[in-house]
Amino acid sequence: MSIVVARVDDRLVHGQVVIGWGRPLELNRIVLVDAEVAASDFERDLYRMAVPAGIEVEFLRPAEAPARLAVLGGGPDRVLVLTGTVAGMTWLARASDQIRAVNLGGIHAGPGRREYLRYVYLTPDELADLRSLEAGGVRVTAQDLPTSAPVSLESLAS
To answer: How far, in Å, CA of 77 to CA of 34, rounded?
Structure first.
């Protein structure tokens, strides 16, 4: 089935991701793209504990991800691709033709960030990157759960 969701969530793997998205979308694989997590046995073990039986989880360094997504994109798995940053997802979406839409959710307040939704805070640079991504043909929406209506980037940033 391929990539069902490509999501930016700074908490990475947590209940809302595995239960809120995993069950309704019948996901059977999560691909977490993060160099630090991929390099840490401890962090990988922690995230694995949050994932229920029936969902596989992979941890990839960004450089490994485009080739792996190309394989998964033609396979039978229902995959959620996850990054913790807008920059990480922007890079990945440009490097992989498997990502045609990006979901923003769980991007929390921080220095230089402005609130757009209660669960999406962005810096001006992040907003510019997302607009550029969308101009290149990747649909960008914000949505905390699949049962919520998606908010377009245009509506979000107006």
So the answer is: 21
